[in-house]
């Protein structure tokens, strides 16, 4: 009987560690995704300031699927008014 309870505890601990590892992997992936988006938005900001490109051209040049998507992301990243 003791061996069954011990084995159940071991399995539970193993599942907890696996779940923690999964969450860590997801957090790392999310951080990388955010970092890539920040790079694209920084490039877009530079293009808007230092080129004659309009917003649509900048959005497409920086890999956004539409000007609306770009505008939302840009506002979330740079709008400090809250």
Describe this structure in words.
- With 82 residues, the protein is an all-alpha fold.
- It is 83% helix and 0% strand.
- The chain has helices at residues 2-50, 55-61, 67-78.
- α2 (55-61) crosses α3 (67-78).
- The protein is rod-shaped, with a radius of gyration of 23 Å.
- The mean pLDDT is 81.
List the keywords.
Arc Repressor Mutant, subunit A; mainly alpha; 82 residues
Quick recap:
It is built from three helices and no strands. With 82 residues, the chain is mainly alpha-helical. It has a single domain (2-78), classed as Orthogonal Bundle (Arc Repressor Mutant, subunit A).
According to CATH, the fold-level topology is Arc Repressor Mutant, subunit A
N-to-C SSE string, H for helix and E for strand: HHH
CATH C-level class is Mainly Alpha
Mean pLDDT equals: 81
Radius of gyration: 23 Å
Helix content: over 70%
- List low-pLDDT spans: none
Find the CATH superfamily.
Answer: Homeodomain-like
CATH architecture, by name, is Orthogonal Bundle
Class from secondary-structure proportions? mainly alpha
Shape: rod-shaped
Largest sheet: number of strands, sense, barrel closure: none
- The number of helical runs is 3
Give the amount of beta strand, in percent. Answer: under 5%
Quaternary class: single chain
Secondary structure tally: strands: 0
Number of domains: 1
Span between termini: 60 Å
Topology of helices and strands:
Layout (H helix, E strand, L loop, with lengths): L1 H49 L4 H7 L5 H12 L4
Helix pairs in contact: 2-3
